[in-house]
Amino acid sequence: MYIKICISGLTAVGKTTFARSLIERYDATYISASEILLVYAQTEQKVTILPEDRDHFWLREKGRNLFLQRRKNPDLDKQIDEVMLTHLFTTTNAVIDSLTVPSLAPQESSAFFILLQATLHQRTQRAWLSSPTMTKKSSGREFKKKTGEQGISYTHCGAST
């Protein structure tokens, strides 16, 4: 028996966190649209991405520049979508992390689709907490100071963070 799970949702909703728990549980391959874009940036655009920059590439200048290129030329996103759909049909035991694949995939894909949702406040706090310059303790104080709102806790697959 094999699984195909597509996880979709907006930025900082918890797709990667949830996907990691699934790949560990089901010994599946993790396929991420963001990772495929990073490979494209390195191979086609000759962008140097240091290992410590991978998690927050899109927040850095090089990531913003690639994002602006994608806005000007949607063909790159179409190519990434095609690669993701190919993985959907050819990889037998996979967890796919993509905003677009669930809406593009035909019903006969035999995949299970999960849409993760969170409020803007929750997504903002998750992004803030994952910042490489913040600890959970300091980021909670800073978030409260900047927004005037209380912090929240998250639960993913039974593990509180």
Provide structural commentary.
The chain is α/β, with parallel strands linked by helices. The two termini are 32 Å apart. Helices cover 48% and strands 13% of the residues. A hairpin with a 2-residue loop joins strand 5 and strand 6. It is globular, with a radius of gyration of 17 Å. A four-stranded parallel sheet has the order 2-3-1-4, with helices on both faces. The C terminus is likely disordered. It has seven helices and six strands, in the order E-H-E-H-H-H-E-H-E-H-H-E-E.
Give me a quick take on this structure.
The protein has seven helices and six strands; from the N terminus they run E-H-E-H-H-H-E-H-E-H-H-E-E. By secondary structure, the chain is an alpha/beta fold.
Number of helices: 7
The level of helicity is: 40-55%
For the largest beta sheet, what order do the strands appear in spatially?
A: 2-3-1-4
Strand content: 5-15%
By secondary-structure content and strand pairing, the structural class works out as alpha/beta
Estimated radius of gyration: 17 Å
Largest sheet, if any?
A: 4 strands, parallel
Average pLDDT, rounded to a whole number, is: 78
| Number of E strands | 6
Indicate the topology:
Blueprint: E1 4-8, H1 15-26, E2 29-32, H2 33-43, H3 61-72, H4 75-90, E3 94-97, H5 101-104, E4 112-115, H6 120-129, H7 136-147, E5 155-156, E6 159-160
Parallel strand pairs: 1-3, 1-4, 2-3
Antiparallel strand pairs: 5-6
Essential attributes:
161 residues; 7 helices; alpha/beta; 48% helix; two-stranded antiparallel ribbon; disordered C terminus; single chain; four-stranded parallel beta sheet
